Predict the structure.
Amino acid sequence: MFSVLSLLSSPPVCLSCKQVKANVLVLGLANSGKTTLVNCLMEAGDQEVVPTVGFSMEKVHFDRCKLTVIDMSGQEKYQPLWEMHYTDAKALVFIVDAANPASMPQAAAALEAVVAHQETQSAEPL
């Protein structure tokens, strides 16, 4: 698993196609801004945002990088679904709502669970 910044700044190059294809997971608690970030990456930042149910997938292109961004629902009942996508992810972005200090303990616990999962053990966090 790579960090998003390292993936975009020095992507591993496929010799036959000269392009990088990667899945990026966007995780965080409900209403933390995950979909807003994805919309900004897609240059659709002015869209109305509604809560994600389950997950949504978007294709984002940066130069030679073709990213499939998987925006996972942060609602507690959907959080167990996150781990189903760890294996295929090349990057993981965990969003925290800094404007909501009351959610910090819950966000920290969710992030600790992600980092402790067997499928994310080889990741290098930024």
